[in-house]
Design brief:
By secondary structure, the chain is mainly alpha-helical. The chain has one domain. The protein has 3 helices and no strands. The chain is elongated, with a radius of gyration of 28 Å. The chain starts with 11 loop residues before the first helix and ends with a helix.
Length: 93
Amino acid sequence: MTLAQGLPGPDINAAVGAAPFAAATVILTKQEHIELVMDVAYWRTQFDRRVARDARRERNYRLHNSARPHSSLDKQTPEEFYFATLPTIKQAA
């Protein structure tokens, strides 16, 4: 069976140890190229925004749990409160 019949042919790149599609040449129209570049820019922006959002969220969690005292925890941070009550929790178990 060959590619003309709709089935994949032999993997020539694997025989020589190259990465799949390493020797492939893609010909794009100018419009396709512009759309591809715009898609890449969009997804790069989305990725960068997510990384920045995750970094802000992590910074806020750390501030909330380790640096900011809470009135309901007798002016202790959640970390201080947890580690102060940990021996009591272990004894109860």
